[in-house]
Amino acid sequence: MLGGIDNALFLKSFSGFAVVAVLALLLRWAFSRGKSLVASNPQVGSSDEYGLFTPVADPKNFISGEILRQHLLSHGIKANLTQTLEGPKLMVFRKDEKVARAVLAAFSQTR
User: Fold this and answer.
1) Spatial separation of the C-alpha atoms in residues 89 and 104, rounded to whole Å
2) Using CA atoms, how far apart are residues 108 and 61, in angstroms rounded to an integer?
3) What's the pLDDT tens digit per position in 42-65?
4) Strands 79-84 and 87-93
């Protein structure tokens, strides 16, 4: 006891303020705006705005594009069918572009 005050009780009373402060910071972080972890709506862009992807085919519609994509997937090439401003495009990574074009050329000759 220091000066007639119970120090343990005095410090315990301040622990409630610390808990409330931590909860306030947690709630402020959880409900802050501008840093959402939820994906935003996709935006359509031109075919050169897709980062590491490069277009390898211009299918007429999504059905023929999905057939081509499934054929590339069966050969172990990761492909993505994307809607661009120019229409649907079949996109692959740049490192797989030559192989994908060769596979698609062979596929179009057999059809």
Assistant:
1) 13
2) 16
3) 788 888 888 889 999 999 999 999
4) antiparallel
